[in-house]
Amino acid sequence: MNKKLVALTIFITHLLMANSTYAAISGSIMVTGTKKMLQDGLTALLILVPIAAALRIAWLNYQKKGLEEPAEIAAKDKHVKKIMIAAISAFCASAAIKVVLSYYGVTANV
After folding, report:
1. Cα–Cα distance between 104 and 26 in angstroms, integer?
2. Distance between CA atoms of 56 and 86, rounded to whole angstroms?
3. What DSSP character marks residue 106?
4. How far apart, in whole angstroms, are the C-alpha atoms of residue 28 and residue 9?
C-alpha cells in the first residue's frame, strides 16, 4: 500500500512538472522552428505532389500511345493507378500534418 502511494505521488509530481516545463520551452527557438518547418513542409507537399503526379501521368500516357501490346498498355494503366493512389495518400498525410499543427496552435494557410 505504501509503495502504491509513493508511486502515485511521483506520478502526480511528474505531471505537474511537465506542464511547467512545457510552458518554459513552448516559446523556445527549437519549438518555433519546428512549427515553421512543419508549415513549410506542408506547403511544399501540397504544391509539388500534384505537379509531379500530373507530369508522371502525362508521360506515361504519352508512352502508352506508341504501344501495341495490350499487356504493356495494362501495365502503364496500373502504374497510373499507383501514382494516383500515392498522390491521394500524400494529401491524406498533409491532413495529418495539419492536425498535428493545429494541436500546437499553428494554422497552416495553404
Report:
1. 9
2. 12
3. -
4. 30
Contacts (Cβ under 8 Å, ≥6 apart) of 42: 94, 97, 98, 101, 108, 110
| The length of the chain, given as a count of residues | 110
Amino acid code (one letter) for 86: A
| Distance from C-alpha of 103 to C-alpha of 110, rounded to nearest angstrom | 17
What are the grid coordinates assigned to 54, written together? 500530373
Q: How far apart are CA 35 and CA 41, in angstroms?
A: 10
Nearest to 18 by CA among 8, 10, 28: 10
Cβ atoms of 57 and 49 closer than 8 Å: no
Q: What is the CA radius of gyration of the chain?
A: 24
Cα 78 to its chain centre, rounded Å, is: 25
Grid cell at residue 80: 497510373
Whether 54 shows a pLDDT value over 90: the answer reads: yes
Mean pLDDT of the chain: 79
Mean per-residue pLDDT for 40-49? 84
